[in-house]
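Running this now, will post back.
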Amino acid sequence: MTTPWGFICACILIELLARMVNGIGRGKLTRQQYEAFVVEWMDDYGPQAEHPFKYNSTVVRLTNSSEPPEAEEKSLATQMYCIMRSSMVHNLSLVAGDSELRSGGVDYSIHLTDRKTAVAQGLKHLQNYDNDAAVFVGEDFLDDIGKVIDKVFAAAEADDVLKANMASHLSSRTPVSWKS
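Update: finished.
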């Protein structure tokens, strides 16, 4: 993927899968539900991963309080929600807006690249990069999402609640179809 459009579509697909797993329908998917989906369903993206990604720095959320905010651990799932899903999908930017800053987003905490460039620069998918950014290699990211799709649908075969959630979402938010 040499343009941001593939990453944007991939982020939209993650949100769709999270909505289906939670049976959201017309309701709002919360940041917490999105992050929980990333951690629980995307094997290499949460703290339970064999080699979990870890940022080197902490984050201080933007607040309206007069109390000084406390630093907290910067999470990959939060950066995926704030920077990839919110800033990039809605604003074509890797810079956080005020709402993303309040949610723990950090400007440029995600570094997007394609496999050819990553190989030339010696970068690997989900490694820590300059200025404490997580590297996302487009082709590897898409492979990971493919695995999540397989995992969700396989799990639904044996899980009636998950199957009902997926059916509920898809019946109230029917997918786009094309008739020629």
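The radius of gyration is 17 Å. More later if anyone needs it.
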